[in-house]
Amino acid sequence: MSHIYTHDKSREQFLRAAKVIPSGIYGHQGPAEGCYVPVDAFPLFSQRAQGSYFWDVDGNRYIDYMCAYGPNILGYNDPDVDAAAAAQRKLGDCVTAPNTKMIDFAELLVDTVHCADWAFFAKNGNDVTTLAIMAARAYTHRKKIIFFKGYYHGISPWTQKIDYAGVIEEDVMHNIYVDWNNYEQLAEVFAKHKDEIACVIAQPYMHGNFMDNELPQPDFWQKVRQLCTEHDTVLVIDDVRAGFRLDLAGSDHYFGFEADLICFCKALANGYNVSALCGKNFLKNTISSMSYTGSYWLSAVPFAAGIACIEKMKRLNIPQLLIEKGNILKQGLLDAGSKYGFDLHVSGAPSLFYLRIADDPTLMLHQEWIAECVRRGVFFTNHHNHFINAALSEEDIAQTIAIAEEAFALLRKRHPQE
Amino acid sequence: MSHIYTHDKSREQFLRAAKVIPSGIYGHQGPAEGCYVPVDAFPLFSQRAQGSYFWDVDGNRYIDYMCAYGPNILGYNDPDVDAAAAAQRKLGDCVTAPNTKMIDFAELLVDTVHCADWAFFAKNGNDVTTLAIMAARAYTHRKKIIFFKGYYHGISPWTQKIDYAGVIEEDVMHNIYVDWNNYEQLAEVFAKHKDEIACVIAQPYMHGNFMDNELPQPDFWQKVRQLCTEHDTVLVIDDVRAGFRLDLAGSDHYFGFEADLICFCKALANGYNVSALCGKNFLKNTISSMSYTGSYWLSAVPFAAGIACIEKMKRLNIPQLLIEKGNILKQGLLDAGSKYGFDLHVSGAPSLFYLRIADDPTLMLHQEWIAECVRRGVFFTNHHNHFINAALSEEDIAQTIAIAEEAFALLRKRHPQE
Lengths: 418, 418
Hints:
2 copies of one chain form a homodimer. By secondary structure, chain A is of the alpha/beta class. The first copy, chain A, is built from 13 helices and 13 strands. Chain A folds into 2 domains: about 10-65 and about 320-415, Aspartate Aminotransferase, domain 1 (Alpha-Beta Complex), CATH 3.90.1150.10; about 80-315, Aspartate Aminotransferase, domain 2 (3-Layer(aba) Sandwich). Chain A is about 40% helix and about 15% strand. In chain A, strands 4-10-9-8-7-5-6 form a 7-stranded mixed beta sheet, sandwiched between helices. In chain A, strand 7, helix 7 and strand 8 form a beta-alpha-beta unit. The model of chain A has no long low-confidence stretch (mean pLDDT about 95).
């Protein structure tokens, strides 16, 4: 039997945090978002991290399947990436004139990413999704944007929902929402709004929260690509979350089509702070004509880290490695669930798997299972996809499956089959 | 006579950059923005930086008065800030659960910044100006935003101009623009749009580009503050550029009033990548209710750097130190100009001084003078305020004045007085 973790120091620190920080911890890493329920099962503050693990402030170690919500792809504190970053830091980071590491990084992305003729760097995924839709509007002289329901493209007003705090109707009045994988519906929207659609923005597959993740149907992307081309509409792929966990050449390449603009962040530099928009040559002058910058955008340390990260990802063929690890874990979890009569659904790409126990539409059974895994040192969350990193070992996976099985067994004891 | 710098390697690298990066170098650090003319006088890429200097790729050393456009406040590679950051990096930076350094940093800002009851961290100045206006709209249930002409609050659509590429009319249709220091005009706008104005957003004084910088008139801010209070309008101070170079308690405190929300970035962590929104308690729940986050926002290294930076700024009383250095430089530049009959205007705060030779409305004479300073190792730019950092020595200032005088002498030789 596993040792059961408690989180007294996390609770204490959260009370401190709540006094001086709105929500205490905000965003996807905070308890308010709904991925961390029941709250008392989860640690709230980390003390340190290394490889595939992090330790919380109560001294508990977790096998980490969230990877800081994506950035940790090679393992925390990867020695190659950290060495490249440290060497650059000695020379300079945020300096009045940029370092040529920026050019090296752009050249490497152009060599690596299939649709990339150029690269533009910023700091958040949101910076580059916003640049993408502004560029599409500037290039097409049109206003409308098509989204797939279940999307997430950041936190700027244009991409939030009308009922979210701080959003006004003018922010989102040109947004059109269609169902994922429904080509006919999309084609109807194009027919209805001929010459009005600036861009389609989409994740490479539907990896939304609170829903089983859904891969594209065969030929879906090829038909969408053709529709966009026929209507001179810019096709934007938001690869912030999935990027480099499916294909180093871009997730569009993985699914056999070519985006006009593609957005990267997260895994781009193993946690160093950088994002990138890459795109086709026909949009380069448009980007050049725009007023778009930020205080730290040309800092050299994240460029050095990004170069080291991409070179290592190429050397190790990271997407294949992560998919293999994910497949082993997936099979182990399915077997463990089935042993105790639970209908576990594992959806999405294996390197970004989404979990749901399908036996209970209230989600309570699923949340109970996740909580028992977390209390034993496997950091899953309830209603968000997970992330695999390269430091995750066979032993980590075996231990994860053993703990998952223990949690299933406990659940079955509490909820006997009729 | 000074050695005259050339920039062959910068040109070579720029040709490389232009192939794979839109504009080659974009934003305020790029030659396209208009601050770097004549382009051939300026270096485009740096090789390293230390203290008050950076070296370009041709090996030229510059006394740097742009400070990476603000972030460098203590000197490049400050040993105390870098040591705190390196210690945190060994433990972890971007981790699934945040580090308690986030709480320490928030508590320190609440202790330091006069109007701060809480702090919220992000990555760009733009992240926090956008959060501020969204929070004001959410709190007031109003749409209109008042700006002062000449403002810069980032690059989100809501804050760009209607004629900028990628901006649509709906982005800016609730924006109202008034003249800086014109209280009567502001009061008229409030009277006309009663119960419609969500917020006033403003820099603490007018430090816009291509204009002499202008401090607030006596009582201007006190009257604006009162007007906002009477109309339940949120007063947002954008202290991204001026922050910590006037007053560690906030530039609102320097000018004797209290903002409802204040935005920091740049000098907050001496170049480490973090921004902050601080504000009053009555807006804390509104911020908590918003959906606002990003991939690297809870990373611990910039928090550790920010703590070390603020503690050192307090220890050294940095604003006073920078204002003193700025005043010595200002007097030296004025004397040097006047010796050769040039009417140099030095405006704004001495720690953020703006330069203009007033003898020539075409600006060509000014650009010629700046170019001759840059060619001799003093990095000024043409139409943007400058920044003083704490590593700038008496010798640096003396050398700067000597070079400025040499440039004035050359200018007078080329353009004899009639």
